[in-house]
Design a protein that fits this description.
This protein is of the alpha+beta class. It is built from 7 helices and 9 strands; from the N terminus they run H-E-E-H-H-H-E-H-E-E-H-E-E-H-E-E. The protein is elongated. The termini are far apart.
Length: 412
Amino acid sequence: MGTTPAPHPQAPPKPTWDPRDPVRPLLRPTIRIRLTLLYGGMFLIAGILLLSIIYLFTAQALSDSAAQLPFKIVKGEVQPTTSWCVLPDTGTGDQFNDAVSICLRHQTDRALDDLLRRSLFALLGLSIIAFAFGYAMAGRVLSPLGRITRTARQVAGSDLARRIELDGPDDELKELADTFDEMLERLERAFSAQQRFVANASHELRTPLAINRTLLEIHISDPEAPVALQQLGKTLLATNERSEQLVEGLLLLARSDNQIIDRKAVDLAEVASRAIDQTHAEACAKGVEIRGERAPAVVQGNGVLLERIALNLLQNAVRYNVPEGGWVEVTTETAHGQAVLVVSNTGPVVPAYEIDNLFEPFRRLRQERTGSDKGVGLGLSIARSVARAHGGRIIAEPREGGGLVMRVTLPM
């Protein structure tokens, strides 16, 4: 006789909550509960104050009304005490009672009018106090949001080391701040790993490229080498030089993405003059005139990196210019508490929708990748990264008639 197989044990149901989330108390001090208690308490206090004030004003009005009756009894006769209370000298009892009722009604109206006037003043005063208290309490409740916003603005300036580290009750705002801090931590690790990779790769590539250049120069300098071999060596040497420029550009791009810690006073006019001296020979060879007035504009930053901005912009303006009669204008000035470097040039017409692509690595006008003898496609990317590391920015605008206007603004 066969045995009945045992049923397979059923798997336990999956939890509907995330086990990674910490267990939170049922009545934790959330923003909703705090705002409810705050505004409910304010309404209750304001109502108690208003009722108390109205009660005091009513008691005072009744007391004043009783102390100032519109008539008095003198020796058995009723005499009016105010000009608006008219009592008949003679008449029946009903007429006399009607006159007294009119006097009392008038007195009551006056008391109510006085109560209404005082209540309106009390309401106005309480409203001012309530608005001021509400404004102060709202600022206190929303102050963590201001702290989060300030930190986010500082992070937008490439300072990924910033953290909110919000203290206070375990509510939604603290949860948001902690989540934001965790995101910044992951972003900082990712950016640091990327920069280390680019820097290490660039350093590792420098050595074989330097060896290749040395070997090619030795073979080219050999007088017994065939002409074809010398021509091939020159071609390979140009290709090797281009690779070295690419590696140097990648290394500088990885360096310039960080915040500048060691800052010194640097004059943009002097930086621009040095860049002009380095580009003068190339500009003369291409028939490009370099002009412009450079006023002193001192900023706090790294002189080598700032010179790289001017040099890259100037080389870009010289190389992408018109074949004849071209010019490049380099000016420096100070405006609105900022130092400004402007490099404008003649050249081909640049569509406005292609301006942003010029700042992308390895991108050129109407060219996706490298393949031009004018550079490796990193000049403007490096200039923008250096400007951002100094807390500034670069704005490019098409120039009427062709060419570009590059405007670099840096805080002084």
